[in-house]
Amino acid sequence: MESPFRPNGSATWFDESDLAFRMNEYDEYAVEEAVRLKEQLGGEPEITVLSIGPDRVIEAIKKALAIGCDRAVHILEPEVASREPWQIASIIAAYARDKQFDLLFTGMQSQDRGSAQVGVLVAELLGIPSTTTLVGFAWADGVVTATRELEGGVKGKVRLRTPALVTCQLGLNSPRYPTLPNIMKARKKEITTLQAGELSSEKPLTGSAAFRHPEKKGSGVVLEGSVDELVEKVLVILKDKTAVLR
Question: Would you say residue 235 lies in a domain?
Answer without folding.
Answer: no
